[in-house]
Design goal:
Strand content: 35-45%
CATH topology of one domain: Lipocalin
Distance between the termini: 41 Å
Helix content: under 10%
Largest sheet: 5 strands, mixed
């Protein structure tokens, strides 16, 4: 190989690495961390005047799926109701009824230019009357897509698992996963829709389907959709996205649950460990770092925030009321989160309840550093999970207020910004910009443009 060719190859590898480092390829980014500390983000902006707003693009339909970023593109999934604008009821309430929108829907995938917000393509992946109803606060497109840069996989609720070409949106393959009815286990007729997102690891697609009947965890080949393995699960319906954990000399898939939180061998689907107990409506995604896996859930009698050792094996459910077990590093039985996935930044774990109570824990010991409310209004709800640039934390309320909190063991609110619309979707971070999917828009927030 001549020197010029070598230089070109090194440059190409460097560019590819840089692009990969700036990607946000799945729900909550790499390893579901919610963190990109490569560039400082804007802490203030104004969507009306355009201050620190790079672009705003109208997006059709209703969706809580988060945007994902790969290379120079932002991708977003949505469900468009043929009967018109779908209703969405936000706020802190306990109504278990399903929304009444049984018209035909189009599940769409859109690609936007990351720099300008221009829609590059807008494809219909599927069209029909939804097989399962949604909750009044949910949508028919809750699951965030995932990409390896070449292909994009998306779960369109009960319509199945779909794989698209990232370049032009062409449908590559699809799989019928059966009815994805993840409604309330105490009243199966109260359908709420599906929300667990697919993730990609080592050329495989991982899908968690905890539903009313026939629950499973499965792995498929990204290239052609071939099923690699499927492991039966016995738990109530959950809305949590699985997470890959590489620690203790093994690769495991960590899943949240009520009767079956646990870890599975990535290669075979074999159960590695399990834990019974917690909140009976598990939503948040597991997080991992430094040999610990963090789980939280809420609703019902228990709302735990806990750290499990990654080398756990067997049934680690404690036989005591204090939740003491060698595989449980620490546990708080009433400090867990209902909707939001926590975030790890530095030595701290931050968890926010849906009523805006933010608690900062020492990630290693579980010691509480502070517990304070973000919002002054008792009715302002929080569903979107936090993200961070390593300097500040960003918490988005359902009515579109974004609270900016400095990282550290002392609580304060550095800024409060409005998105101008409701927002239940978790933002993405890439290249010094925040990407918010609001009720009707995709908004790119970033300084210097």
């Amino acid at each position: 190989m001549n020197p010029l060719t070598t230089i070109r190859l090194i440059f190409a590898v460097a560019v590819a690495s840089l692009a990969s480092a700036n990607d946000w390829p799945q729900y909550r980014g790499p390893r579901a961390s919610g963190l990109d500390d490569s560039v400082a983000l804007a802490t203030t902006w104004n969507v009306d005047t355009g201050e620190n707003v790079r672009w705003q693009t109208a997006i059709p339909g209703l969706s809580h799926a988060s945007p994902i970023v790969s290379g120079d593109r932002v991708y977003v999934a949505t469900a468009v109701n043929s009967a018109g604008r779908s209703d969405l009821k936000v706020g802190l309430y306990g109504n278990i009824e399903a929304a009444k929108d049984d018209a035909s829907h189009q599940w769409r995938l859109l690609a936007l230019d990351r720099s300008t917000g221009k829609i590059l393509w807008n494809v219909v992946g599927h069209e029909r009357v939804p097989k399962v109803a949604r909750h009044t606060k949910a949508t028919h497109c809750n699951s965030t897509p995932a990409t390896d840069g070449k292909r994009i996989v998306a779960i369109f609720g009960s319509e199945g698992l779909f794989c698209f070409d990232a370049k032009d949106g062409r449908l590559v393959w699809k799989k019928d996963l059966g009815p994805m009815d993840a409604g309330y286990f105490q009243m199966p007729s109260a359908q709420w829709g599906f929300a667990s997102s697919p993730i990609i690891h080592d050329g495989k697609v991982i899908v968690l389907c905890d539903v009313q009947k026939g629950s499973f965890l499965a792995v498929f080949e990204l290239a052609d959709g071939r099923e690699v393995w499927r492991t039966e699960r016995k738990d109530v319906p959950t809305w949590s996205t699985p997470a890959i954990v590489e620690a203790a000399g093994r690769v495991q898939i960590a899943v949240n649950g009520w009767h079956h939180t646990g870890g599975y061998d990535f290669a075979t689907g074999r159960e590695l460990w399990k834990l019974d107990g917690g909140g009976d409506i598990p939503v948040p995604t597991p997080l991992s770092r430094d040999g610990l896996i963090y789980f939280t859930s809420a609703h019902g009698r228990s709302a735990p925030m806990r750290a499990i050792r990654a080398e756990a094996t067997g049934d680690i459910t404690p036989d005591n009321v204090d939740w003491k077990h060698r595989s449980i590093a620490w546990n708080h039985d009433r400090r867990g989160n209902y909707m939001q996935t926590p975030i790890l930044v530095g030595a701290s774990l931050y968890g926010c309840k849906d009523n805006s109570l933010l608690t900062c824990f020492d990630a290693a010991t579980g010691d509480v550093r502070y517990s304070e409310r973000l919002a002054t209004s008792a009715t302002e709800g929080f569903t979107s999970s936090p993200v961070s640039d390593g300097r500040h934390l960003y918490f988005t309320s359902e009515i579109g207020n974004v609270y900016v909190v400095p990282v550290g063991g002392k609580f304060s609110v550095a800024a409060k910004n409005s998105l101008g619309e409701t927002c239940l979707s978790t933002p993405a971070i890439a290249g010094g910009a925040l990407f918010f999917r609001t009720r009707d828009k995709l908004i790119a927030v970033g300084a210097g443009r």
